[in-house]
Amino acid sequence: MSRSYRSAPKPQRGDILVESLVGILLMMIIGLGITYVASRAAVSQRDMKLENIVVSQMRTLLEQNGALLCTTNAALLVVSLPTQTATQPIVATCTSPAAVTVGTSVITGGAPQSSVVLTTRTQDTGMFGGIIRVGDEP
Question: What is the bridge-based pairing of β-strands 105-107 and 115-120?
Fold first, then answer.
């Protein structure tokens, strides 16, 4: 009596190499994706820190000078950034109190003094990711 054995087909030698190559390519794509996401998060965090520094300096200017920012020279209207050696100019927009007319009387005391709004310049939007406004808007 003869026995017949059926053995499983042996894989070819190149199959294991191709499977390894595909695995390495998948790991590389996953690694590149993780690197991209991490770099975007780092850039976003840097931008947020920069915006917080600018907002803090603008608030300090408003607290210390208030309405004087409307009348004094432009030397006060600057913020300094840790990434720049030169200061960045900002813009002060001032509005006077609103006058209300009732009949023949004009009342100007109802509104606070002038309101001051500090903003970054429109040409600096690339640096700050937009226009930053600090102050009381009417």
Answer: unpaired
Beta strands (DSSP E) in the chain are: 78-79, 88-95, 100-102, 105-107, 115-120, 133-135
CB-side neighbour CA atoms (13 Å) of 47? 15
Distance CA 117, CA 136 (A): 6
Q: Evaluate whether residue 75 is within a structural domain.
A: yes
- Number of domains present in the structure of the chain: 1
Q: Assess if residue 87 is contained within a domain.
A: yes
Distance between CA atoms of residues 138 and 117, nearest Å: 9
Pairing of strands 100-102, 133-135: unpaired
- What does the pLDDT look like over 72-95, one tens digit per residue? 666 778 888 887 788 888 888 887
**Domain membership flag for residue 4:** no
User: Under a CB-based contact definition with an 8 Å cutoff, are residues 42 and 14 in contact?
Assistant: no
- On whether residue 7 sits in a domain, the answer given is no
- List the beta bridge partners of residue 133: 119
Full residue range of the structural domain in which residue 105 is found: 13-135
Q: Sign of dihedral through CA atoms 56, 59, 63, 68?
A: positive
pTM above 0.85, yes or no: no
